[in-house]
Design brief:
Elements (H helix, E strand, L loop, with lengths): L1 E8 L2 H12 L8 E7 L14 E8 L2 H15 L5 E8 L2 E8 L2 H5 L4 H14 L8 E5 L3 H23 L3 E5 L2 H11 L5 E6 L6 E6 L57
Parallel strand pairs: 5-6
Antiparallel strand pairs: 1-3, 2-3, 4-5, 7-9, 8-9
Helix pairs in contact: 2-4, 5-6
Length: about 260
C-alpha cells in the first residue's frame, strides 16, 4: 500500500523535501519513491512565465503502519486530542494500543465504536499485501476487562441453566464476544449454548444440556418438576454447583478466529 503526496518547490529537490515533510518522513527513507511530474522553469527575462518543480512522492507502508495511520486519521477527524496510537505486529496479529484522554468516545456503547474501528483498520491493513493479518485494538485494557466480564456471565448463566433447566437469551453480540460466552458455558457440565438470530441481532442462548437431564427432568407431586430427593429448590443444594469440565471442547470455537470470524451455530 502506498501513501502518495504531490508537492511543488523552486527546485526538484525542494519539492521532494516538501512532499516528505507532509508524509512525515525523511528524504533518505528507503520506503519512499518519487516521480518528477514537472521540472522547474525560469522566468523569461526574469519577468514572464516560469513555473515551480512538481514531484509525486509515494511512501510504502507495512500492514501495521497502514492500520496505525488509518486509526490516527480517524481519531483526528473525530476531533479528539492528546491521544497516542502505537502498533506492533507478531504472528500476523497487529495490535494497536490507544491511550489518552476521552478514550470513552473511541470505545463507545459496549465497545461498538471500538469494534467498528477494529474492523475498518483490518481492511486498511490487509490492502497492503496478500498475507492476511488480524487486527486487535485495545484501549485502557478494555478488551481484557470485557472478556473477564463475559466469561463470568457465561459461567453464571450456565450454572443457572444446569440447576433450573431453563434457558436464557443474551443481548446481541459480535462473533468474538459470542465465542467467549460459548467457551465459558461449555466448561460447565449440564449446560450448553448456541446462537440464534441473523446479522446484528445474532445472540447467544444458554440452556440445559439435553444429554444431561438428570438434574432437572421428571415430574414430582402435583405435576411439578422433581429435582432429586433431598435437594432444595432448583435440584441442587445451595452449596452445590455443577462440576467444571475443563476438558470439554467449546462449541463454535474456530481456530484463529478474529473479532469478525465466522460462527455457524
Amino acid at each position: 500500500m502506498f501513501k502518495e503526496v504531490i508537492a511543488t518547490g523552486a527546485t526538484v529537490e525542494e519539492a521532494k523535501e516538501n512532499a516528505c515533510k507532509e508524509l512525515g518522513v525523511e528524504t533518505y527513507d528507503d520506503r519512499i519513491e518519487f516521480e518528477i511530474i514537472e521540472m522547474q522553469a525560469k522566468k523569461v527575462f526574469g519577468l514572464f512565465g516560469g513555473r515551480p518543480a512538481k514531484v509525486k512522492v509515494s511512501l510504502k507502508q507495512t500492514s501495521d503502519q497502514a492500520a496505525e495511520s488509518f486509526i490516527k486519521e480517524i481519531i483526528e477527524k473525530m476531533g479528539l486530542e492528546n491521544i497516542t496510537v502505537s502498533s506492533k505486529i507478531e504472528d500476523n496479529v497487529i495490535t494497536l494500543d490507544i491511550e489518552g484522554e476521552d478514550v470513552g468516545f473511541i470505545i463507545g456503547r459496549r465497545g461498538e465504536t471500538l469494534d467498528a474501528l477494529q474492523y475498518l483498520a483490518c481492511l486498511a491493513a490487509n490492502r497492503v499485501d496478500q498475507n492476511y493479518s488480524r487486527v486487535v485494538i485495545n484501549t485502557g485494557d478494555y478488551r481484557e476487562k470485557r472478556e473477564k466480564t463475559l466469561a463470568s456471565l457465561g459461567r453464571r448463566l450456565a450454572i443457572k441453566a444446569a440447576k433450573t433447566g431453563k434457558k436464557t437469551s443474551l443481548e446481541p453480540m459480535n462473533p468474538y464476544e459470542r465465542r467467549i460466552i460459548h467457551t465459558a458455558v461449555q466448561k460447565v457440565n449440564g449446560a450448553t449454548s448456541w446462537s440464534e438470530g441473523e446479522s446484528v441481532n445474532r445472540h447467544v442462548v444458554i440452556g440445559p444440556d439435553p444429554k444431561n437431564k438428570s438434574s432437572y427432568s421428571g415430574r414430582g407431586r402435583g405435576g411439578r418438576k422433581s429435582y432429586g430427593s433431598g435437594r432444595g429448590r432448583g435440584g441442587y443444594n445451595k452449596s452445590e454447583k455443577p462440576a467444571p469440565n475443563p476438558d470439554r471442547k467449546p462449541l463454535n470455537e474456530g481456530e484463529g478466529m478474529g473479532l469478525y470470524g465466522r460462527i455457524d451455530k
